[in-house]
Design a protein that fits this description.
The protein has a single domain, classed as 3-Layer(aba) Sandwich (Hypothetical Protein Ychn, Chain: A). Helix 5 links the parallel strand 3 and strand 4. By secondary structure, it is an alpha/beta fold. Mean pLDDT is 87; it is low at 6-28. The chain has helices at residues 2-26, 51-64, 68-73, 100-118, 127-132, 150-159; strands spanning 41-46, 78-83, 122-126, 145-147, 163-167.
Length: 168
């Protein structure tokens, strides 16, 4: 009898786990915040300065640009990323003094920037920040356009009804 009870309990646990897994795939699929929208326009204020964290955040932004919930609103969402503050150091081809781990993260960032550019995401760097952080403008990844002041660019995007999303 005990053996049958243990088997029954195991079956119940497996069933509960399967229910949780199947429920988990539908949880979060719908976004009430997107209801009624006809377009999606967002600009990411990207300031993350840690190479590994920045690579993860930029990858998440890239995934957002292809998210099925966004695509359900419009097949032509508009996205931009403005690199400001310490993030400007991460989009330079100059990698002097960086650890191999940080260089790997910068390779990931460069690859994501390339994919984003090919997909039509606008990419900009604040040249004031580049100067402050000692980044030579000629070393900036070629897909990224320089703007004199990233805050002014953010103001422009907001005036054009882009939602601002901080990425710090």
């Amino acid at each position: 009898m005990r053996r049958e009870t243990k088997t029954l309990i195991k079956c119940l646990l497996v069933s509960v786990c399967l229910l949780c897994i199947s429920a988990g795939t539908s949880y979060g699929e719908g976004y009430k915040a997107l209801d009624g929208l006809k377009s999606v326009k967002a600009v990411f204020d990207f300031r993350a300065g840690n190479p590994k964290g920045a690579a993860m955040q930029l990858d998440m932004i890239y995934k957002i640009t292809h998210d099925k919930s966004i695509m359900a609103v419009t097949d032509k969402p508009e996205f931009a990323v403005v690199f400001i503050g310490p993030a400007v150091k991460l989009i330079s081809k100059n990698r002097e003094g960086l650890s191999p781990e940080d260089q790997k993260s910068l390779d990931e960032i460069a690859a994501t920037v390339s994919r984003m550019s090919k997909d039509g995401v606008r990419l900009e760097i604040c040249l004031v920040a580049a100067k402050v952080f000692g980044v030579d403008p000629s070393s900036i990844l070629p897909e990224i356009a320089g703007v004199e002041n990233g805050w002014i660019s953010l103001i422009g995007y907001q005036a054009k009804n882009y939602s601002i999303v901080p990425a710090y």
